[in-house]
Amino acid sequence: MADDVVREPVLIFDGDCALCTDWVAWAKRHPGAARSAGGWEAVAYQFADLNSLDDRVGGGGAVTASRVQHGPLWLTPSGDLFGGVQAAARLLMRSGSGWSYAGGLLALPPVGLLVRSLALPVMRRWHPTRTGGAP
Prior knowledge:
Blueprint: E1 10-13, H1 18-29, H2 31-35, E2 41-44, H3 50-56, H4 65-68, E3 73-75, E4 81-83, H5 85-94, H6 97-107, H7 109-126, H8 128-131
Parallel strand pairs: 1-2
Antiparallel strand pairs: 1-3, 3-4
Pfam family, one: DCC1-like
Keywords: Membrane, Transmembrane, Transmembrane helix
InterPro entries: DCC1-like
C-alpha cells in the first residue's frame, strides 16, 4: 500500500502471526463485511508503506512495525488511529449486522480493558517474545 490517500479505513496487522492472519481472513469472509456501510482494506505491515501511513496520522512514529506486532492498527481516512482492542472494535462496527453491536460494546473502555486483560495470555502464547511472555 503505497498510496498516500486513504479512501477507506485500513487495518494494519502482523502478517507473521497466524492468529492475526486468521482473524483478518475471517473478517474478509464475513458476509456483513461486504454489505457494510463502506469498505475497508487490510494490509500486513510487512507489505505496507508504514512511513506514508504514519504521515497520514500526523507522523511522530505512531505507525511502526513494533506497534503492529503488539496488536492491529485501524487507520481512518480522516487520520484517526486506533490500536489493539479498539482496532478490533472498529472493524466489528464496520462489519454490519450483530457484529456492529459487539464492536460498539468492545469500544467501551471497561469492556475493552476486560477483553485486553483476558486476551493478553493468548497473545503471549502466539508472540511470546513480543509481549514479554516466556519463549
